[in-house]
Design a protein that fits this description.
This protein is mainly α and 304 residues long. The radius of gyration is 23 Å and the shape is globular. Helix 1 runs antiparallel to helix 2 (20-39), helix 2 (20-39) crosses helix 3 (51-62) and helix 6 (138-151) crosses helix 10. It has a 3-stranded antiparallel sheet. Strand 1 (166-167) and strand 2 form a beta hairpin. The chain has 12 helices and 3 strands, in the order H-H-H-H-H-H-H-E-E-E-H-H-H-H-H.
């Protein structure tokens, strides 16, 4: 069955609608599906038809103590693989119609308050380093932080940016999102000023094809590198809880909605295909509103 996995991955790549992260997740999830089949001595695709194999597969992945949403992602990946096998004539029926998958777990995104964002920024200003040479990339990291909060981009999107993708005159940036979809998003004046200073230090402001952010070897800074940058900056600002690059994206969306930005505009800036994906941030804002109301209104709670 491993041969069919490679064929399926090629099929996904040729479709051109999937990011490398999505394809990597598909490969990992389906490999687990195949490993389960191999443990049960199931060698041919047609042998996975029926309830027996799928029950064993569900038990196999649930033993890993993963979250419900991760479980659903793995099931979805396996379903896609099965549908591919049906499309190429290796399976006749979809065995997944015989089982009921658990419902998706609704989790509110973890965001930072505006005060926490300010704290993160102030603690990491390049001027706060006693010896500028002691932290060679202080300006780069600060530019990454301010740019991410100004645009709400995913870390993979920031990693793929080139110098020429930022228009310093109009104040917009061209973003390559999931599945290669492009969008135009605004960049704040403060972020543009800091970014310009960083690029002038590198002498690449006029070199549009160069990576926007580079590593110590002068190559493109990877999305994993950006994740590490944010983690180090959060540690420097002495945050006790886990702060990630996605925390900044969540904060961007939540703060815009808190200050009156309409949901459709936030959707476009985040690059969400469906408005429903963006709507989760309204729940965050409404929760905050409820807490403020309960705290401030003299008769918000029941009197005994």
């Amino acid at each position: 069955m491993r041969k069919f996995l490679e064929d399926f991955i090629l099929h996904l790549k040729s479709a051109g609608n999937f990011s490398r992260h999505t394809i990597r997740a598909y490969r990992s999830d389906i490999l687990e599906f195949i490993e389960c089949a191999e443990k049960m001595k199931v060698d041919r695709p047609r042998d996975i038809e029926g309830r027996f194999f799928l029950r064993n597969y569900m038990g196999f992945i649930q033993e890993k103590k993963i979250s419900r949403n991760t479980l659903l992602r793995k099931i979805s990946s396996a379903k896609s693989f099965v549908n591919y096998l049906i499309s190429v004539g290796e399976l006749k029926t979809d065995p997944f119609v015989l089982i009921h998958a658990p419902k998706k777990e609704k989790r509110l995104p973890q965001f930072m308050t505006e005060g926490e964002i300010e704290k993160l920024i102030e603690y990491n200003r390049p001027g706060n380093f006693e010896n500028r040479k002691s932290y060679e990339f202080a300006f780069r990291d600060f530019a990454i932080l301010v740019f991410m909060y100004s645009t709400g981009m995913r870390r993979s999107e920031v990693a793929s940016m080139n110098v020429g993708d930022v228009d310093f005159i109009s104040g917009f940036a061209r973003v390559r999102g999931k599945g290669g979809a492009e969008r135009i998003t605004p960049v704040g004046d403060n972020a543009l000023e800091i970014l310009r200073e960083y690029l002038e230090m590198r002498n690449v402001l006029s070199l549009g094809g160069h990576p926007l952010f580079v590593n110590r070897r002068g190559g493109r800074l990877s999305d994993a590198g950006i994740a590490l940058v944010i983690k180090k900056m959060a540690k420097k600002a002495r945050f006790a809880r886990n702060i990630t690059a996605h925390s900044i994206r969540h904060s961007f969306a939540t703060h815009l909605l808190d200050r009156g930005c309409d949901l459709k505009s936030v959707q476009e800036m985040l690059g969400h295909k469906n408005l429903a994906t963006t709507e989760i941030y309204t729940h965050v804002s409404l929760e905050k509103l409820r807490k403020v109301y309960d705290k401030a209104h003299p008769r918000s709670r029941k009197f005994r």
